[in-house]
Amino acid sequence: MKRLLTALVVLLFSLFAAAAARADGIVVTETATTVTGSLDGSSFTNALVTLTLTGDTANVNQSLGSGIFELPGTATVFVAGIGSDTFTGSIFAIVNQSSTDGGISDLTQGPTEGAALIVTGNNLAFSTYDLTSSIGPLSGYAGSSLNFNNPSSTLGGSFVISNLSGDATFTATVVPEPSSLLLVIVGLAGSFGMWKRKKRTS
Hints:
single chain; 22% helix
């Protein structure tokens, strides 16, 4: 009985540790349907542009104040008919609950909220969202708080928006980290091993 109790304690501890250590990956995608600008020197007009940021929910912060959530990560840009590239600057996903918008920003252009490359605006689902769970797709008007024609650095040169209109769509998808699952498996294996050992000795 004592060994069974020990096994249960080990199992519960493992499950608790897995929950406490849980920090999930998250992929944030911002798509705008009518963007004009250039990518690495190639111009485009009224093109579909998709920005994709990969981050970790453990890194979400509120350095700009209550209700404004930021998530740093690595990001790429895809322009239909042109191709794709990877940003080299400080790229963040951002959600502003009070203004009900969310998007992807280039921090090298200024404070995160004022450096939005593309945002999905005026969607009430953002009023309670904090970049730690899956959401979307959320649609709204396409906006940008950057001055047009400010370049954002990429591996191949730069990404520049000179005009933006139409609609935008924001999607966030959480991807569970394998380490959390591994902790649970180790805990279960340890409990099973203790149970089997007890059974052999009795």
